[in-house]
Amino acid sequence: MHLRLLLISHAATAAMRSGRFPSDDALDERGIEATQAWRPRIEAMQAAAAFRSTAVCVGETARLLNLDAAIAPALAEIDFGRWTGQGLADLAAAEPDSLATWLSDPQTAPHGGESFGALAARVGAWLDALPDTSGTVIALTHASVIRAAILHALGAPLSAHARIEVAPLSLVELRRSARGWSWITSPQDSVS
């Protein structure tokens, strides 16, 4: 039996485009247009179940994709604490040591929110609790959650989290078989 999990990052928001930590932002016009263009790709997928985060941008992405997805709290964005809504460049100038520590040490949360390690534990528990059945499951979520899922699947160190880039409306496929989780690339993801 193989469980196929398709992790999809939500479409872009104005906060993302301006380099700010998210606050529960809505999609911007370009994000809406990109999602509408992506809809046929999602409609072609045969999913046994779909899940999503509670964030506004994720809910809008799901609606635009015509994806009826149940809310899964484990798929929520990392809690950025007092950094929520602040610009990355501003934080780099005001709190360079805290930002550097947060980027290099997944167990710290100098912003008073959630550490990447805590997020990874939450996401890993959700992944491992998915039923052992064949079929496809879609999870519409955030880049941070997808990073955590990739690291969990690979058994990779959490310190690698800052080296994984996940663009808006990216699709990452994980599969679980008797040997555990694997990260799968699609032919369209390869270079010919």
Summary, kept brief:
This protein is of the alpha/beta class and 192 residues long. The protein has a single domain, classed as Rossmann fold, CATH 3.40.50.1240. The protein contains 7 helices and 6 strands.
How would you describe this protein?
- It comes from Duganella sacchari.
- This is Broad specificity phosphatase PhoE.
- It holds the Pfam family His_Phos_1.
- With 192 residues, this protein is of the alpha/beta class.
- It has one domain (3-189): Rossmann fold.
- The chain is built from 7 helices and 6 strands.
- It has helices at residues 14-17, 29-43, 56-64, 88-94, 96-104, 116-129, 143-154; strands at 3-9, 49-52, 70-71, 135-141, 171-177, 180-184.
- Strands 3-2-4-1-5-6 form a 6-stranded mixed sheet.
- Helix 6 (116-129) crosses helix 7 (143-154).
- The longest helix is centred in the first third of the chain and has 15 residues, at 29-43.
- It is globular.
- 34% of the residues are buried.
